[in-house]
Structures are given as C-alpha cells and as structure tokens.
Hints:
Blueprint: H1 4-9, H2 13-72, H3 75-85
Amino acid sequence: MKTMRGLASTGEVSALKRGGSSMANQEDSYFADLEIRLAFTERKVEKMKQEIDQLETRFTSTEGKLSSLIRMLPVDLLQGDAEESSP
Length: 87
C-alpha cells in the first residue's frame, strides 16, 4: 500500500486530491488498530511477568521447604542413598 508521501512522489497528485482523505482515514484507522493491539500485547506481557514472578516465589519457597525437610532426615539415610547412587 502506498503512503500519501509515496503517491505525491510518483506524481499521482490527483489521486491525493480525490481519495486522499479516504486514504488518510484508512491509515489513521490502521495505526489506531496497531496501537490497540500494542496496548493489549503490553498488558499480556505485564501479566506474564507477574505470573513468572509468582512462580519464582513459589519455587523458591518450595525449594526452601524441601531443603529443610532434607536437613531433618537422618544422616545415615542420606549416606545410604549417596552410596546407592554412586557408580
């Protein structure tokens, strides 16, 4: 699609006079649509960032709880597991 500037540079000035306002309205509508889509996408990205932060917090909390539970296990049990898993 040619822009208004592109039409003027190719000598299609009469097209600008006749349909220029229609073309300008189409361009305005197109860019307004892009702005709406961009705003929607930015909101989705922000929501995803928040979800990632929540998941990281939950993971860190779970990791801490698991660490605490492992420390509560008897040492001989942990050593037995280590011996079984070594080649």
